[in-house]
Amino acid sequence: MVTKELPGARWHEMLAAVGCRVEVCADTVVLSVAEIRAAMGTRCDGAIGQLTEPWGEELFSALRAAGGRAYSNYAVGFDNIDLKAAARHGIPVGNTPGVLTDTAAEMAVALTFAAARRTGESERFLRAGRFEGWLPTLFLGELLRQQTVGVIGAGRIGDAYARIMVEGHKMNLIYYDLYRNEALEHYVAAYSAFLQTHGQPPVTCRRAERVEDLLREADVVSLHTVLDDSTRHLINAERLALMKDNALVVNTSRGPVIDEAALVAHCRTHPNFRAGLDVFEKEPELAPGLADLENVVIVPHIASASKWTREGMATLAACNVAGTLLKQPAWNRPDVMPFLGSNPPQASPSILNATELGIPLYKDIQKE
Ligand code: DGY
After folding, report:
1. Residue 152 in 3-state DSSP?
2. Peptide bond connecting 202 to the previous residue in cis, omega within 30 degrees of 0
3. Cα(96)–Cα(183) distance, rounded to whole angstroms?
4. What is the pLDDT, as a whole number, of residue 368?
5. Mean of the pLDDT values across residues 284-295?
6. Could you identify the atom of ligand 1 that is nearest to the CA of residue 76?
7. Catalytic option among 224, 239, 266, 301
8. Quick one: pLDDT band at residue 365, thresholds 50, 70, 90?
9. 255 Cα–ligand 1 center, Å
10. In the predicted model, what is the mean pLDDT of the chain?
11. Is there a contact between 215 and 202 (Cβ–Cβ < 8 Å)?
12. Which residues, 6+ apart, have CB-to-CB distance to 186 below 8 Å?
């Protein structure tokens, strides 16, 4: 049972190849828990669900009662899943990492420049027939080249975004993450050396000890954290107040990482501050006043929406369910590309609770 139509055909073929009859809910609105339960019915071996659905005790017990043994989120993020509830019912939970990285990073870049160069408000101005000719003062924005970019959460997507901004726009990087990203630091150091051998100014990379240090220093702050109790409202009124008056904040992670009401208030009182948002605190609703702000660029949670990525996510989700039903080991490695090729590994690409449920890893099976 799949709670939404997914793009491409391969995911469907992969499930059919392991003997699954696939039922897809055609509705485009977010399904309620009761509707998902009804869709699973009394016989359902596995489910693919969405980040908009609360997969917790009620849904996992219903899936189990229907004979279910496999679940995959159609997302890399899994803040909508109660992993403990899944484990209680013995249900492995998959997600779809690796295929979103570049697509999501590109959207963060797009929002960065849309906000910095005021493309939303200037487009509205033009479409409204208000353009009366070129003016030296029309829609002045910010030049980002050689400014400082701050990345909060330097995992896969944050890392990819940072590299684009450093390499493409010669920005200095400051990042905040619980873990040091040595590969990123080495990359920036090597790129800086390369620039200098070509007579260009160096670029720098520094890991901030405190998020506040990053906020004070950065001209652009891009959020790439997971959503959990430690990151909910990470960007609040106090922290916004630390940022430069003409800084910009970009969010392609999860809406609740920003206190949206505080952001609205800050953008109202700081007209040169800008925000680029793909995600919202109470999706699909927007905080009152957000949509009226000219200094905010908003798109409807589409950071991963390239055809390649969304089809890849569907393939990974299907492989998670098929692999689990076939009792295959978990791949759980950063490189998931083999699953997109013609000869996918005999494994589930990414099972979040593999260790907890005693599911062996593919690499360990290979060694035996
Ligand atoms: C994810 O996979 O978590 C993304 O938010 C989907 O765009």
Report:
1. strand
2. no
3. 23
4. 72
5. 98
6. 2
7. 301
8. confident
9. 11
10. 97
11. no
12. none
29's tokens: 């609105």
Tokens of 358: 């005693």
Contact of 192 with 158, CB cutoff 8 Å: no
Whole-angstrom distance, CA of residue 103 vs CA of residue 160: 10
| pLDDT above 80 for 157 | yes
Q: Do 109 and 102 form a contact (C-beta atoms < 8 A)?
A: no
| Alpha carbon nearest to ligand 1 atom 4, residue | 75
**Predicted confidence (pLDDT) per residue in 196-253, tens digit:** 999 999 999 999 999 999 999 999 999 999 999 999 999 999 999 999 999 999 999 9
Can 301 be counted among the known catalytic residues?
Answer: yes
Pocket mutation for ligand 1, best pick of 224, 251, 278, 304 (most atoms within 8 Å of C-beta): 304
Q: Give percent of the chain above pLDDT 90.
A: 98
Query: Tokens standing for 64?
Result: 């189990």
Summarize pLDDT for 244-253 with one digit per residue, the tens: 999 999 999 9
Give the mean model confidence (pLDDT) for residues 295-318: 98
Copy the structure tokens of residue 91. Answer: 């249900």
- Structure-token pair, residue 7: 């793009």
Domains of the chain listed by start with CATH number: 10-99+305-367 (3.40.50.720), 101-298 (3.40.50.720)
**Among 328, 231, 283, 225, which Cα is nearest to 53's?**
283
Q: Is the CB of 97 under 6 A from ligand 1?
A: no
> Which pLDDT belongs to residue 364?
87
Locate the ligand 1 atom nearest the alpha carbon of residue 100 and give its number. 2
Identified catalytic residue from 283, 294, 333, 356:
283
Q: Using a 6 Å cutoff on CB, does residue 312 contact ligand 1?
A: no
